[in-house]
Amino acid sequence: MKQQMAYILASLALLGMLGGCMVNETKPLPKIAAIQAQSQIPEDELLDVAVRPFDVGVPEALAKDEDALAKRRIYPEIRQAESRYLATMVRSTLESSGQWGAVRVAPENVEFVDVIVSGKILESTGSNLALEVSVVDSTGRQWIANKRYESIADMGSYKTEAALKQRDPFQNVYSQVANDMVAARDRLVATDRRDIRRVTDLKFAGDLAPEAMQGYLAKDDKGMLRVMRLPAEGDPFTTRINRIRERDAGVVDTVNGYYANFSDQMRDSYGSWRRASAEEIEKERRARNKARTRAFLGAAAVLASVFVPGQCASTDYNCRRIESAARTAGAIGGTAAVLSGLKKYSDARVHAQSLKELSQSFQAEVAPQVVDVEGRTLRLTGSAEEQYREWRELLKQLYLEETGGFASQERPLPGPPPATGRGELPTNEGS
Amino acid sequence: MRLPRASIGVCVVGAFAVLSGCASSGEKGEPNPGGQQSGGAGAPATPAPTSSPAPMPIPLPPQPESGGSAGDSGSADPGPAQTPDERRAAIDRKLDTTLGTFDESLKKEQERTAQERDARDATAAAAGDATEGSDGTKEGEDEGEAGSAETEKPTVASKDGKAGSSTARPGDLKSDKDRDGTNSGSASGSGANGRDIPDGSDDDIVARRLRKAAEQETDPELRDKLWKEYIEYKKNVGK
């Protein structure tokens, strides 16, 4: 009995000392690949996709509190960069699957695309990525509604520079989004898919020439757009609109090129930041675990050495000496464990601070690039909007010429299309 | 004294007649064969040509309300046109002109973006070359381990019916993809046109270096030689 108690105390003290030394080995993540198209998709069912830069997900209440944000591992400037980078990664995954038409990263003001992917960054560090993604088509049909996609990093990607270039640590997240989109699309019948494309074309035409394109689309009971009629084959007016549509695609391509260049530019340094971030977070996590375990077991050993009732007879001096020695050892070991735990807490704080400094340094590097890409996007879409305005006016003139000016008098126009559409920056929360 | 007075009187009457004639032509809006009205501002007063299918006089295209450049004078200004066909043709010409101008500026912008990308690729390739020597073998192992390079060489299904056949980098422009479809191989932009360049997926370290050197080389002749060397090396290795 005496020996048992001594063993318990000694074990607690030892556990307190060694408590934090356990290592959690993580298994390699299974690699999820985007489902590849097995056969050629008919052209009239091949849907174009626009991926919006993601919402940065900075809580408004904390937007100005850097320390609070840093505690949550949110660095606003990095989030701004990630907003575009992650969209580009989703884009390349979708494109690589061969399931879609043109896939482009496009700002909010690019409206006339068959399928639009938008999302919000819920968490993004080197060790974890969580996104909330929504997908909607041009008819207004919701494919994916605010679904959460999350994964821990594939640590294999952090092993070397080459591995990092080869596969993004969060490729699984992008692949899951792509696969869900394919599943949602495959649930539609071919007519629906064709209608999506028609609706997109007619929406664009309606934006450019609202007078001429009245009555082609209408909303059904569910609020979804339906094609009511189609322009005649070879209609010169539609041909003109299609020519402008090609230019619109050119503008979107160019903006997409800006985002792609931006992502390429930041890829290496962002990868390094992610790797360092993952390491620091892992070190911090381990230090905290150790600190917690040591402090708990150390306190338990001290308490046990004080409060466990004596088991020896008052005349059994040998037993009492052993008991006393065990209590002393337990108290000393426990105290040492608690102190060691406190030191580990301090180590954890050092790692957190190190991550913060690292992130601030990366923020300083990436912030001008974000400003540059958004400036260029704004300039291009702004001048394109000016041009669209002129084309709208020319189309209106043509329409009046062709109808003798009656249509505009007899049928009330829905008003000029909002001129604010293009030429605006994407409005991200906290940006 | 009489003669001068009479001649002055005649002159005054003549002047009045001339002035009144000018004034009447301005007020009554007689057709001005010289087409002096600017743009379409005076057009509503123009009578509709008899050939017009419209039962009522057709108003000329209104001036842009936004103050944009639609009403700017130019070679295709619809103002002086008289018949609907002429006016439509003028508007179409203006549309063509603006489309052409827009294409040019867009093309320049795309070229600029492509140049920036190429410059960065070249820098990255040079940096990769410098570090390759030190961890070349390790890199090879890791490439195998990392699995499929989904984001490196995606296949493309475009509306132009090139599904899954061409390769594209993330961020390639749609127009680039179109060009890729007409050229052969991934090195089409590197002066290797017309040659059957291996895709480089199974390159060993020597082949990788040759390929990178060829991709980076700006001198067309030297680049050609490097590609030739690369292809020959690949053939020899394959034997």
How would you describe the overall organization of this protein?
- The complex is a heterodimer of chains A (431) and B (239).
- Chain A is α/β, with parallel strands linked by helices and 431 residues long.
- Chain A contains 9 helices and 7 strands.
- In chain A, the strands form 2 sheets. In chain A, strands 2-1-3-4-5 form a 5-stranded mixed β-sheet. Chain A has a two-stranded antiparallel sheet with strand order 6-7.
- In chain A, β3 (115-124) and β4 (128-137) form a beta hairpin.
- In chain A, α1 (2-18) runs antiparallel to α7 (236-307).
- The longest helix of chain A is centred in the C-terminal third of the chain and has 87 residues, at 317-403.
- Residues 407-431 of chain A have low confidence and may be disordered.
- With 239 residues, chain B is mostly helical.
- Helices cover 54% and strands 0% of the residues of chain B.
- Chain B contains 5 helices and no strands.
- Chain B has helices spanning 2-28, 84-145, 174-182, 205-216, 220-238.
- In chain B, α2 runs antiparallel to α4 (205-216) and α4 runs antiparallel to α5 (220-238).
- At the A-B interface, α3, α4, α7 and α8 of A face α2 of B.
